[in-house]
Design brief:
It is built from 13 helices and 24 strands. It has helices at 20-30, 46-58, 96-103, 123-131, 162-173, 188-200, 233-246, 262-271, 309-317, 337-342, 372-384, 395-398, 404-410; strands spanning 2-6, 10-15, 37-40, 62-65, 68-71, 106-110, 134-138, 142-147, 154-156, 178-182, 203-208, 211-215, 225-228, 247-254, 275-279, 282-286, 291-292, 295-298, 319-327, 346-350, 353-358, 366-368, 387-392, 415-417. A hairpin with a 2-residue loop joins strand 4 (62-65) and strand 5 (68-71). The chain is globular. It starts with a strand and ends in a 10-residue tail after the last strand. The structure holds uridine-diphosphate-2(N-acetylglucosaminyl) butyric acid. Uridine-diphosphate-2(N-acetylglucosaminyl) butyric acid is lined by residues 20-21, 91-92, 114-115, 120-125, 159, 161-164, 185, 305-307, 329-330, 372-373, 400.
């Protein structure tokens, strides 16, 4: 658990780490080549550690040194066809389907886990992979997939799912012939994956804003590729909100890629947050005490990311008036709201959203990290609340925020990580 004694003040500058939602797909995609691959700007996250362990158990030698991750060269692409049970603890293990179906004839994969803030169907992934020539059987806890060889085809995604776009991209790279993917997602993390795969030797081009063409190649033979992961736009947004609420004067966020967060910045402006764009990759946010309520709705990129709404909710508890937050991607992603309420926020739930009456002062309380972004939302609240906040289940936060305690300490905020006493378990 995390213990915060608030209110805390921050100042100086903080550097955003590499993007969780870029590095995980890129690690899965790297399995397509037997050549050595070096990744830079890799965040120190629990989900990355879990995926490293899985990849090692599949038979690939991986090492991590600071923020550099190396997938070592292997003689030939030969992975185990049983993905270990650990895969059920992260969402992105599902992308191993795309890479392993390209390199093995059959695989068994545990059902993926990750944040369970909502029902998270995988039909778009399975539909697309089946179109490419995979047979997939869904068991209660496992997926069993096999193929006599993937073949390129035209696939229209029912919804521009981020994960499904990534899975199908990965699966198409070594498939025989040409694949056209229509209605694909266009998050910056997708572009990062495309860039990485093309550097390895894949042939992926955009035919339009939401259509991709992948010309299958027999192997990815480029040697010694080193690739730098893009900064995490959700972590960047988190520090921007912290700067607005808790900076002594201002907080500078380095590796804040302005181009990736345009809608978010527009919303900050509407709410009355004072900030300055220092460069295309850095933002200075000033303490902003005079905030006004607003209404927001999450959308597919380039719209407001669903991952940012729990973070903006804390900001809106400090804004004068009635704010509405709706989430069109995950309409039930509001588990965190009851904990903000427990801390003194005035929030009511309706179908698909919440209504926040501000501004209210927040008080420390014992709360729960319902999921990764819900967890950071209550942590931000704890940093501005009066008194002690105890955040249970905080491992969720470390799934997505690299070196968080250290970064907070460097800008002047103290949070304490503690191991929760669970007593003696009776069997
Ligand atoms: N969907 C389907 N069928 C599918 C796939 C998705 O109906 O086969 C629906 C989902 O239920 C949801 C929408 O499509 O309503 C969007 O889901 P998407 O597939 O785009 O999300 P994802 O790939 O599972 C990634 C991120 C999430 C982020 C979403 C939306 C990971 C590792 N990555 O998930 O990040 O919320 O895109 O942008 O989960 C986070 O970082 O905290 C996080 C949860």
């Amino acid at each position: 658990m995390i213990v915060v004694k608030g209110p805390q003040k921050v100042s100086g500058s903080v550097k955003v780490s590499g993007a969780k939602n870029s590095v995980l797909p890129i690690m899965c995609a790297a399995l397509l080549t037997k050549e050595k691959v070096e990744l830079e700007n890799v965040p120190n996250l629990n989900d990355v550690k879990v995926l490293i362990n899985i990849i090692k158990q599949l038979g690939r030698d991986v090492s991590m040194n600071g923020d550099r991750l190396i997938l070592h060269e292997m003689e030939k692409l030969n992975y185990s066809n049983h993905v270990p049970s650990e895969a059920s603890s992260i969402r992105y293990s599902l992308l191993l389907l795309g890479s392993l179906l390209s390199t093995s004839k059959s695989i068994t994969l545990p059902m993926p886990g990750g944040c369970n803030f909502s029902d998270r169907p995988i039909d778009v992934h399975l539909y697309g992979l089946k179109q490419l020539g995979a047979n997939i059987i869904e068991g209660e806890n496992h997926l069993v997939a096999n193929t006599i060889g993937l073949k390129g085809t035209e696939i229209t995604l029912r919804f521009p799912s981020v994960g499904a776009t990534e899975n199908l991209l990965i699966a198409s790279v070594l498939a025989e012939g040409e694949t056209i993917l229509r209605n694909v997602a266009r998050e910056p993390e997708i572009d990062d994956l495309v860039k990485f795969l093309n550097e390895l030797g894949a042939k992926i081009t955009y035919l339009g804003p939401n259509t991709m063409k992948i010309e299958g190649v027999p192997a990815l033979e480029k040697k010694g590729v080193t690739y730098k992961i893009i900064p995490d736009r959700i972590e960047a947004a988190t520090f921007a909100v912290l700067g607005a609420l808790a900076s002594r004067d201002s907080l500078t966020i380095e590796n804040f890629v302005v181009e990736h967060n345009l809608v978010f910045l527009n919303i900050l402006q509407r709410i009355g947050v004072n900030f300055e764009i220092i460069s295309p990759n850095s933002l200075k946010v000033y303490h902003s005490p005079n905030l006004v309520a607003t209404s927001i709705c999450t959308e597919v990129y380039p719209g407001l990311p669903t991952d940012i709404q729990p973070i903006l909710a804390v900001l809106l508890t400090q804004a004068e008036g009635e704010s509405i937050i709706e989430d069109s991607i995950y309409p039930t992603r509001f588990q965190y709201a009851k904990y903000l309420e427990k801390m003194g926020a005035h929030i009511s739930l309706f179908e698909g959203g919440i209504c926040i009456q501000g501004k209210t002062s927040l008080e420390g309380a014992e709360v729960f990290s319902s999921d990764l972004r819900g967890g950071i939302s209550v942590l931000l609240a704890g940093l501005i609340a009066k008194g002690e906040t105890v955040i249970k289940n905080s491992y969720q936060i470390f799934r997505g925020y690299s070196e968080l305690s250290l970064k907070l300490e460097k800008i002047g905020a103290e949070v304490e990580e503690k191991v929760e006493e669970v007593g003696v378990l009776a069997y």
